[in-house]
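We examine the record.

___
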Amino acid sequence: MTKKGVVGGWLMWVLAVLVLAAGLAASPMGNTAAREESAYSELRTFTEVLSLVEENYVNPIEQKKLVRGAINGMLRTLDPHTSYLTPEFYKEMQVETTGRFGGLGIEITIRDDALTVVTPIEDTPAFRAGIKAGDQIIAVEGESTKDMNLQDAVRRLRGEPGSSVKISVRRKGVEKPLDFSIAREIIRIKSVRSRMLPDRIGYIRLRSFQGTTGAEVRDALSQLMGQKARGLIFDLRNNPGGLLSQAVEVSDVFLEPGKLIVYTKGRLESQQQRFTSSARGIGAEMPLLVVVNAGSASASEIVAGALQDLKRAPVLGEKTFGKGSVQTIVPLSDGSGLRLTTALYYTPKGRLIQGEGIEPDIKVPSETPLPPGAEHLREKDLPGHLPSEGEKKGAQDKAGKTSPAAPVRPSRMPGGEEKDNQLDAAVDYMKKQILAKERKG
């Protein structure tokens, strides 16, 4: 096949996708012919550039690499959460939401152009090996991570259980890189941990919102109630979110039936959705307090915002992250996927979460010392973020790496040696609430 033929085939594929998208998003607004003509004109320019690069670039280059680069570039002009998912990463993402995969047990991100550990997951190989939040992974199996994207890094770090991977780490305050050889294991991420605190105060810590999180919360609360818990502290700190359906299920546990939990607004009628509690939750009458911080995002903010708006529970801690956008995952024909921002979340009282976050009723800044390099940007600090309703147009494009960062401190299960002033404040508050309720009879 000639290069010209390949380009032509690519053009027809793109046009077919556009026609499909137009069918999905059809509206009675008119001007369809003009929009189609504009699309054809822009695509002609694109295929012209693609052909010139393939035929004249100094080194041979795969068309797939060019096309994927073009797709990624297009999506980067939208917002930080819209992205193209390669077949490999799309598969990894599906595995991740099940809460079971083979790897080291670390959450990673790209920060200041470096592959950085957000946190090691408790009781995993990375945690036991001594990997710390803020560590920069500078090499995997001897290969530099300098130009490695997040998808490639995840793929290299994961693998068959029992196999080992060598990583080199740069740690703040340590002069030379640290080398680790870590054996991969099946990582089972349990999203819910719970225990009983003194004075029969129940405690549930929620790490993420996975496919079974709602059921796990219900089971944990049922066990605590079986132990005669008098109240519950619900810890959503450093919870990055997850599945919307599970945010609704978790909220449902604490509400009477028929209560609005969250609603969404988008361009299409199908994106205007309202989610309400379906049945009386087993914890609907229990004294409840929600704890959040700057690392509480997305689904965490939905739960906190709903319980706060409905006056079901006060919120204690620090202002949350502020990610209030809905991403729809669209599978593509070659096994890849498109993660597309399609709507925004609103709390029961109509508050927009995007760029704003949830303000706690009881403000308690954390006094826990930050690990070296462990800091977290809020949504409004991300370049290209969707602006909040009160944010000046264009301000989102000025955000960047130098924006003030909100600290993310390690959350812990109570009972350890580290002091946790937010949890201490939560316990004190809950004691007062329990006494007040019991006095009323």
Residues 7 and 50 are 7 Å apart (CA to CA). Confidence is low (pLDDT under 50) at residues 1-30, 394-410. The chain has three domains: 3-77, 100-188, 192-440. Residues 100-188 form a domain with the Pdz3 Domain fold (CATH 2.30.42.10).
